[in-house]
Amino acid sequence: MKKILGIILLLFATGFVCAQKTMLVEKIGGSQRYYYHTGDYLKLRVSKQDTLLKGRLWSIHDSVISVEELRPFDVRLGDIGSVYKQFAFPNKFGRYIMIGGGVIFGIIGINHLLNNEPLFSPDMLIISGSMVGAGLISLSLSQKRCRTDHGWKVKVLNIKVK
Description:
By secondary structure, this protein is α+β, with helices and mostly antiparallel strands. The chain has 3 helices and 9 strands; from the N terminus they run αβββββββααββ. Helices cover 36% and strands 38% of the residues. Helix 2 (88-114) runs antiparallel to helix 3. The strands form 2 sheets. A 6-stranded antiparallel β-sheet has the order 6-5-4-3-7-8, with no helix packed on it. A 3-stranded antiparallel β-sheet has the order 2-1-9, with no helix packed on it. The chain folds into 2 domains: 2-84 and 145-161, no CATH class; 89-140. The protein is elongated and about 95 Å long.
């Protein structure tokens, strides 16, 4: 009786395990790995058509992925020229500091108008311009290009999740 209950429990427990496919972008010979699951935002360049695709990862199969822009677009793994990894902190920091530079520009401009001073002054342009420049630099560093012809590899993994 214990054996039968054990077998039924084992069969019942394995029914809740499902496989999830994961797209892996990794550096050959290195330790850098980026994982993408269905529903994640993805930006990649397809080398044969030389097109840039941005959108959600719609589905992952053994050798084909689907990226949803307006409709799902199928891409073979061998056709991927590069994958762009987005980093959230530099992107948000760059946007906020650019907005802050514009706000400081406005505040100093209003202050100069209220005090009957010339609207544009060197300190106003230096402070707000340096903030906008730092924001642009941060935005340019917010993504990393992983080129498949320069040591990066794209694979599909089957991961079992309980």
